What we know:
Order of helices and strands: EHHHEEEHEHEE
Helix content: 25-40%
Distance between the termini: 32 Å
Radius of gyration: 15 Å
Structural class: alpha+beta
CATH topology: Aminopeptidase
Number of strands: 7
Amino acid sequence: xxxxxxxxxxxxxxxxxxxxxxxxxxxxxxxxxxxxxxxxxxxxxxxxxxxxxxxxxxxxxxxxxxxxxxxxxxxxxxxxxxxxxxxxxxxxxxxxxxxxxxxxxxxxxxxxxxxxxxxxxxxxxxxxxxxxxxxxxxxxxxxxxxxxxxxxxxxxxxxxxxxxxxxxxxxxx
Length: 173
């Protein structure tokens, strides 16, 4: 199989929406109420919402492909947020998801490497993210990439207020 990473365009919005819904559901449905999942997916992963995000110059979406099959994506955010105020010239890794059937095939690593390279190439000094405190698989993945904890914030999934741990990594070589 041949793995490629591409920059998503507005023409990819339906692929991105489908990937978003499936990967988020695979990652979190077993540990959350259906109504909270449904509400979040409808608000955050719809074609309309993603079209708006794709058109926003402060967002970058990357797609991972095996041959012609989309298998995952990442979203980078260039806008400032309160959580990153103390960080040196930060960029946020807002999402990185891979279809479960492709876990362990290096698509997540390729997306992460592309995100890190994008940040470095564009002069960002720090990359940061928020990850659900109970998503141990993801926390361990980020630690393997050199991310370290620096705080926490609330994350609302439907009507359920959860806690995300905040992690950061220096992009200065």
